[in-house]
Write a structure and sequence with these properties.
Layout: E1 8-13, H1 17-24, E2 28-34, H2 39-43, H3 57-65, E3 71-75, H4 83-87, E4 94-99, H5 111-117, E5 122-128, E6 138-144, H6 152-172, H7 205-214, E7 222-226, E8 229-233, E9 235-240, E10 255-260, E11 263-267, E12 271-276, E13 291-292
Parallel strand pairs: 1-2, 1-3, 3-4
Antiparallel strand pairs: 4-5, 5-6, 7-8, 7-13, 9-12, 10-11, 11-12
């Protein structure tokens, strides 16, 4: 760690999780490249650091190639940088990325909902950058085991708490890769697609609940339709149809058997599912109506 104490660091990304740790560790952060419009850009006035908000890969490349730096650190930076090309300007620079998954699993732009929807272990990984997407050698990582109780809001919070920890572990290793890299078998690559937010009426109860929990942040939600009206739900739970829930049974699956505040309960083949935080607010007139599959 000591050999990097006075080196010049550039930090780039959409959040301040690792930047705050770099400042606490006394690292020499000479420039910050927040993604334009991101939380990090909004927070920059809190830090007495020079910064330049970027909104394109070309803009970021121009700044990086023409700046002095010994270490480049990114977290939530949406641009795939051509590291081989940048090395022609900075042959001795260390390029590292902190990614909120237990790599090599869940590479891609949206590992948090990917971990929920695919029911995978998660975590945080610091790795050397190459020309691929989250494919460079792993330096340090922390695993967060999957739990069916997790949703995206919780998992974002937990993984973001691990990011500064895993960066410090990587720094303690002088950014040298681990001797043993993760298994490349049975991997999931996940980047968000709008169709993933559409409820599948043919899915199992567990898959439906996982889908809703994967997209429970307020900017997303899962879409479903009753008659000709489309709704969003931001939470789901499986209910047994045993006492005291037997009143939620129905002979036809996907039938609404209760409307309670902002929640609806639909009957499934052997259980019931409660969808809560439903928007627009459901009315009692929906009782007995069936969900309709939105075309995917």
């Amino acid at each position: 760690m000591h050999q990097f104490k006075n080196r010049e660091f550039i930090y780039a990304g959409n959040r301040s999780t690792v930047l705050r740790q770099m400042i606490d560790l006394g690292l020499n952060v000479t420039l910050v490249l927040p993604v334009k419009g991101s939380w990090l850009e909004q927070e920059m006035p809190l830090f007495s650091l020079p910064y330049s908000a970027v909104e394109s890969k070309e803009e970021a490349l121009s700044i990086i190639c023409n700046s002095r730096l010994d270490v480049f650190v990114s977290t939530g930076f949406p641009f795939i940088l051509p590291i081989t090309r940048i090395r022609s300007y900075h042959p001795k620079t260390v390029f590292v990325n902190v990614h909120p998954s237990f790599l090599p699993d869940l590479r891609g732009a949206d590992p948090i909902p990917g971990a929920i929807i695919h029911r995978r272990d998660s975590g945080a990984t610091c790795h050397l950058m190459d020309d691929g997407v989250d494919t460079g050698p792993i330096i340090a990582q922390i695993k967060l085991p999957y739990s069916p109780l997790l949703d995206s809001e919780m998992l974002y919070n937990l993984c973001f708490k691990l990011e500064p920890q895993v960066f410090e572990l990587a720094l303690q290793r002088d950014f040298l890769p681990m001797p043993t890299q993760g298994s490349k078998a049975d991997l999931v690559y996940y980047s968000f697609n709008e169709s993933d937010r559409v409820m599948r009426l043919s899915e199992s109860d567990t898959e439906t609940v996982a889908r809703v929990r994967a997209f429970n942040t307020q900017s997303k939600g899962v879409r479903f339709m009753v008659d000709s009206t489309e709704y969003l739900t931001f939470g789901a739970d499986i209910l047994p149809v045993t006492p005291p829930f037997e009143a939620f049974r129905h002979s036809i699956s996907n039938t609404i058997t209760a409307v309670v505040g902002s929640s609806i309960i639909i009957a499934k083949s052997s259980t019931a599912i409660r969808f809560h935080q439903v928007k627009p607010l459901p009315q009692s007139s929906l009782l007995g109506h069936q969900l309709v599959q939105i075309p995917i």
